[in-house]
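Exercise 7.
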Amino acid sequence: MEIVLAKSAGFCFGVKRATQMAFDASQQHQQIHSLGPLIHSPQVVEKLEQEGVKVCHQVAEIPGGAVVIRSHGVTAEEIADIEEKQLDVVDATCPFVKKAQNYAAQLSAEGYLLVLVGEADHPEVEGIYSYAQGEAIVVATAAEARALPNCRKIGVVAQTTQSLENFSEIVRICLAKAKELRVYNTICDATTVRQNEARKIAAEVDLMLVIGGYNSANTSRLASLCQEQQPQTRHIETADQLNAEWFSDVERVGVTAGASTPRWIIEAVVEQLVLLGKSG
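Solution. The predicted structure, written as tokens, is:
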């Protein structure tokens, strides 16, 4: 059985940076918490907890010491609460997310209706949205964009892990609704590269594996995109979820992973696939 592993699989720049910062900070602070899970990988969050980085979901729950701001960022209100509590801050917000937050603040301050393309309940989107100083609307689909009101000035930013196709379609719809449209493409380049590579591999294999947390938006989106190319697409978190029955009559299997998936989990899956190939 041939295994085709995506070159872009695994940690993106922002996640790698955040994880390193958190592990380093765990050695420097006796008392340390992260505000929400650092990244959307239960396995990495568990390793961090073993190093003393406990997860709290509200600033009020943090007794003191240091707080790590997750890669997805947090809301402006939470930052204010952290400052009021005088916690030591380890800001691991992805620089691309920070840029989207700044654009959201700028556009709304300049009187634009802010259209944020993303998933309303995703922590990154909640954070970006909180920086808007005026009217802001989260839009996930073209259908939702069509329901937007006509407006003199519309400004658009995106959740960093959005697909370029969805973002472009929503921008096109907004163009017909505004006299003035300002667009900042805040999609991370790594996301586009990862999605394009995954699509290409999925179209050329008999079965596609997408590895990453079930709570990871970018991993779930990768799985959906691969499913369009190859109906035999499986989203798994770890190697022990592999089922030998999936691979009967499979000559080529593709493997990719979300931006929050560490290399050691990917390697474990590949090793298991090699064993399955030999036993088959």
